[in-house]
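Case study 2.
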Amino acid sequence: MALTTLIPQKLFSKIAPFQPVQFATTLGILSALLLNTSTSTLAQPASDMSSEQPNQQLTVERQSGTCPASVGIWTVLLPSEGAADHTVVADTKAIASNGKISSSSNTFVEYEAPLQEAYASCVGLASSPDLHSYSFEFRNGKVYFRVNLDWVPGYTKIVSKTVASGRPFVHWQASE
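Prediction:
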C-alpha cells in the first residue's frame, strides 16, 4: 500500500521534503540498530554479580563434614495479569567450581558443580519454605542446585536454562 493512500493527500502535499524511499531506509536502519542493541543487551549478563550480594539466602542444614553456613540466590519476579516471569541465579561460585546441567525437563532442572576443597566433605541440604521451587544438596564433593516446578499449580515452563558467568541461571514462566 502506498504512503499516499495512508496519508490524506491534503496533508501529504504539505510535506514537500518527505521522500518515502529515504524515510523507509532511515526507518529500516533505526529499526535494525534498536533490534541489534536490545538483543545484544539481553544476551549479556545484566552486571557482574560478584560485587552484589544475592537477595535471598538459604541456610545449609549440615548433616556432616564442613559446609558453608548458607548459599545465596538472586531472584527476580516480573508479574503480569494472571502470569509471572521468574529468574533465579544460584551463587554457586562462592562455594564451587563451574558446573553443568545434569538433568532437565520443562518443569525441572538440576545443576551440579564440584565443591571447593574447603567444602568437599559437606553433606547437607539448603531450602526455604518461602522458596519452594529452589533447593541445594551437598554430597559426594558436589553441590546440586535444583529448580522444581512440579508442585506449582497452573501452567509452568522453564524457558531458559544455562550456566552464565559460572552460575546456574533459570528463567521460567507461570500462569493460571
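The longest strand covers residues 70-80.
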